[in-house]
Design goal:
The complex is a heterodimer of chains A (about 550) and B (about 375). Chain A is α/β, with parallel strands linked by helices and about 550 residues long. Helices cover about 30% and strands about 15% of the residues of chain A. Chain A has two domains: about 15-50 and about 65-120, 2-Layer Sandwich (Alpha-Beta Plaits); about 130-540, Alpha-Beta Barrel (TIM Barrel), CATH 3.20.20. In chain B, a hairpin with a 6-residue loop joins β15 and β16 (about 365). Chain B starts with a strand and ends in a 9-residue tail after the last strand. Classes of the chains: A alpha/beta (about 550), B alpha+beta (about 375).
Chain lengths: ~550, ~375
């Protein structure tokens, strides 16, 4: 029993923490599972001493004071071992004797997460639940003249194009004259966004790739996945499955030595090359893989030493301006695959996105633009970047689309939107809303981790420890003891479940709108929102 | 759902024939409007095949403004068909000062112009007149094109026809398209009445184009001044037809490949698969959606019918060599050609375009899975 608790400026009590562990002595079997599984050692087995007073019925006898001990679980209050609320303790407890509960008031811990001057870093995404996408409704139900389309039985064409589309007249001319026509991929509009090998565990990566291969080869759904910035396993580079993969290159160029050397041995071309200039979760900041996760395998694939932090620079160091960077990188990458592979940049949502887009419209090799909004996720970033930096995706995407409409290039440079799609679980509705605002497709990452691998993270500060390799589900860990918890077969199965149900939901949205022959890109007349300002900003209907 | 009937015949036919056929199909339209398109004209205008004919509705001040504008441009009236209207219109039909059908002589300085330039200028004049009419609400101009008359009015088709005395012997044509309107999404505006017209192309539709907004955005950005208006979601069909033939240089059989392209599996095995894949990708923004039966006429008087990808609307073509009728309902066809060979009636399905060439000898069917004719 602590009799002389220290009271200093940084002393926190359990009450000051965001998560409090409730433990029941009556139910606990003292099996130790909870303390063993806790990824951050926030709870530990403890011995408690308790005073007892026994008063006899006979008043003439004096009460006797004694001491008893019992064993239990104690929550630590040191910020380094704070409970992250992941709830793994509850998951493994055989008797439901333990559970983290959220504090009833804002915590005091947040003021102390900077020991040694180290600002808080974490994984996950902006800690702010909900969002505008969930408020958008599909209001143009085709009732008057239509026989309703049957989402279950009719034929639907819900694919999209990734690649530069020429104006029809120009395309005809080049076809006649056997000129170069930019490569275009016909793909499913829901893309798994860049999550690197390294940020994700080997089992998670393997599961994703298996799921993607199954969707393509057994379900006939041309789903594509981006590698993120971390290279690509050598065997995948040399397999026929590479055609389902979008190789990402970012400012750290991690893994690109391996990729470039594999080009002569590639059996098929990759789907596309994504050049990452920015990420919605941490705009203006480069990728970050913390040393905890840089083991031998990761180091080998990325071509770096083991056990060091891998911060990618915020910019592509060899270039001095975005215009130059975009133009040169697109050209070099196109040239590497002899102009057979679409190459497009990915930027973070920003009020300057239009400038980048306008550059792309004049670049004949640019195959598209991916924009990642403020609600995008990350494996590791500074908390301040996650919570406060970035631009919401809806208006950024809409501005870009309307800009293309004005230029008459809305079918030429596909826009892909990412960042917070399916944040509240409404994946198909969010994706359809963005498509109707003008996106050719959407990228999702966090939703995939949640749906396919049971990621525990939330937008209210739960877990969010992807950065330190302690993911209790083994999704973002490089520790075999953790990632063995994740069976790649299960992940693959869940990916397929996720896509098949998404497809059904997407049909259930577009069928009542009378759309089935093509993906309703830019069909903004179908959308409504009960927020006047948002309706005006997005140029959709205001409905109440 | 609107009702459509189109006639292509070696001998000129009165527009009343088409309006009577619409009346037979009247359960399907609410009498909210009628549109007529006449081409390959008979009667007195037969002698003036090359002179542009202005069709529209004018107020007294409007006609004065028109005259001063046209005189300024150097156009002289060559012939006009006067439509005398009784003082009291039938119920639901607005009172108008004048329905105009007037053939003009080209200005002298136009003689040197190429055909393309002439055609572009004719469109320009029509758009200017429409704009002038909108400003003062005194002119509604439907078409300004050689050998073409268009009449549109709000009201029951047959009642309007009788009121305007469209049975008069001066008014007949070898090609007639007529639509009885069922007013749906958009307010009744004469410019929203089918058929729609641009540079010799005309279409009318029975349905709803749910992809209207993105298509409109795309057409507007095509740098073609005639792609304007968009009072109806069906107006884009004529623009897409014009774009396919004029801008892309393709034939009518490619039209369906633009508006409702084949799915990828079918393209793989198609003899023109590679070409069609490119057409589908580049013209993706022109893909229509929703239930639609499109009937159209090309500048060379070819008439066709095409259906949406799912064939959600009725449509039938039948007739004998020399006369063919395209109709949304069989009863409309029966009314006009009761004695035809009914066994050879054809209802185009989701892959078909039924075409009657200007010689009117047969109905030929282009199926999307067939090889396209060689490009010129």
């Amino acid at each position: 029993m602590q009799t002389n608790a220290e009271i200093t400026a940084s002393t926190l009590s359990i009450k000051d923490l965001p998560w409090q562990i409730a433990w029941s002595m009556e139910k606990c079997t003292l099996c130790g599972s909870c303390t063993a599984v806790c990824p951050v050692n926030a709870i530990e087995p403890a011995v408690f001493r308790k005073r007892t007073v026994e008063a006899a019925i006979n008043a003439s006898l004096r009460p006797v004071s004694g001491f008893k001990i019992y064993y239990g679980v104690r929550q630590r209050t040191d910020p380094a071992y704070r409970c992250v609320g992941c709830g793994m303790c509850a998951m493994v407890c055989p008797n439901d004797a333990i559970m983290p509960y959220r504090s009833d008031e804002p915590d005091k811990l947040r003021f102390h997460l900077n020991r040694g001057g180290q600002a808080q870093r974490r994984g996950g995404r902006r800690n702010s639940p909900g969002g505008l996408l969930d408020q958008i409704k599909f209001t143009r139900i085709s009732m008057l003249t239509d026989p309703a389309l049957d989402a279950g039985r009719h034929e639907f064409e819900l694919r999209t194009l990734l690649g530069r589309i020429l104006p029809p007249e120009e395309n005809m001319k080049r076809l006649r004259e056997h000129g170069w026509i930019p490569p275009v991929r016909e793909i499913y509009p829901l893309i798994i966004g860049g999550m690197s090998f390294g940020a994700l565990s080997p089992t998670m990566w393997e599961g994703l790739q298996m799921g993607i291969a199954y969707l393509n080869e057994e379900m006939g759904m041309p789903v594509r996945i981006s590698t993120g910035e971390g290279g690509c396993p050598p065997r995948l580079l040399r397999s026929r499955f590479l055609r389902y993969v979008i190789l990402q290159i970012a400012s750290g160029y991690f893994g690109w030595d391996e990729i470039i050397h594999a080009i002569p041995e590639m059996k098929v071309d990759p789907c596309a090359i994504e050049i990452k200039y920015g990420q919605g979760a941490k705009p203006g900041d480069g990728g970050l893989l913390m040393w905890h996760k840089v083991n031998r395998l990761i180091a080998a694939i990325r071509g770096v030493p083991m056990g060091v932090n891998l911060p990618s620079p915020p910019t592509h160091q060899t270039k001095y301006s975005i215009e130059e960077a975009v133009a040169k990188m697109i050209q070099s990458m196109s040239m590497a695959w002899r102009f057979r592979v679409p190459v497009y940049p990915k930027i973070s949502g920003t009020s300057t996105a239009l400038a980048v887009l306008n550059n792309l419209t004049r670049n004949p090799y640019a195959a598209g633009l991916a924009i990642d909004g403020e609600d995008g996720g990350t494996g590791a970033a500074y908390n301040v970047s996650l919570d406060h930096m970035g631009h919401p995706i809806a208006s950024c995407l809409r501005d870009c689309y309307l800009n293309l409409v004005q230029l008459g290039q809305q079918n030429e440079i596909p826009l892909f939107a990412g960042g917070g799609i399916g944040k509240s679980g409404n994946l198909a509705a969010n994706a359809a809303a963005l498509i109707m605002l003008g996106a050719s497709g959407v990228q999702v990452g966090k939703y995939v981790m949640q749906a396919a691998a049971g990621c525990l993270g939330s937008e209210t500060g739960r877990c969010n420890i992807c950065n330190i390799g302690l993911c209790p589900k083994g999704i973002t860990s490089q520790d075999p003891r953790l990632y063995r918890r994740l069976d790649p077969e299960d992940v693959a199965q869940r990916i397929v479940d996720m896509y098949v149900s998404f497809d059904t939901e997407l049909r259930k949205i577009v069928a009542p709108l009378g759309r089935s022959t093509s993906l309703p890109i830019g069909m903004s007349d179908a959308l409504g929102i009960s927020d006047k300002a948002a309706a005006d900003r997005l140029r959709i209907s205001y409905v109440v | 759902m609107c009702r459509l009937v189109a006639i292509t015949s070696d001998t000129p036919v009165s527009p009343m024939t088409a309006l009577n056929a619409l009346d037979v199909m009247r359960e399907g339209h609410d009498g909210s409007g009628v549109g007529l398109f006449l081409r390959d004209l008979g009667g007195p205008l037969e002698e003036m095949k090359d002179e542009p004919i202005l069709s529209g509705i004018f107020t007294e001040p409007g006609i004065k403004r028109l005259d001063s504008y046209m005189i300024n441009m150097g156009f002289l009236t060559k012939y006009k068909i006067t439509i005398k209207v009784p003082k009291v219109p039938p119920p639901g039909v607005p009172r108008r000062d004048m329905y105009l059908i007037r053939a003009y002589e080209y200005p002298e300085e136009w003689e040197e112009l190429s055909r393309e330039e002439k055609e572009a200028r004719l469109v320009g004049i029509r758009l200017t007149l429409q704009e002038m009419g909108r400003e003062n609400k005194d002119m509604i101009v439907f078409s300004f094109w050689p050998d073409t008359i268009m009449i549109k009015e709000i009201g029951d088709p047959l009642a309007v026809g009788k009121y305007l005395e469209l049975g008069n012997e001066k008014l007949n044509a070898r090609i007639i398209m007529a639509q009885g309107r069922q007013n749906t999404n958009y307010a009744i505006d004469l410019y929203a009445c089918h058929p729609f017209f641009i540079q010799g192309f005309s279409t009318m539709t029975n349905g709803e184009n749910t992809a209207f907004v993105p298509i409109r955005q795309y057409l507007r950005s095509r740098a073609e001044p005639g792609y304007t208006g968009f009072y109806s979601d069906s107006e884009v069909f004529v623009h897409i037809l014009h774009y396919t033939l004029k801008h892309l240089g393709l034939g009518v059989e490619a039209y369906k490949h633009v508006i409702t392209p084949l799915q990828d599996g079918d393209l793989e095995s198609h003899p023109n698969g590679e070409f069609l894949k490119h057409l589908k990708r580049t013209c993706r923004k022109l893909i229509i959606d929703g239930p639609n039966c499109v009937i159209g006429v090309l500048p060379d008087n070819t008439m066709f019918m095409a259906q949406d990808r799912k064939k959600l609307r009725p449509g039938v073509v039948g007739g004998n060599p020399g006369t063919y009728v395209f109709s949304s309902e069989v009863c409309g066809l029966d009314y006009i050609l009761p004695d035809r060979d009914k066994a050879s009636d054809f209802q185009p399905m989701h892959l078909d375009t039924a075409v009657v060439n200007p010689d009117r000898r047969e109905v030929s069917i282009c199926r999307q899975m067939q090889r396209l004719p060689r490009l010129h």
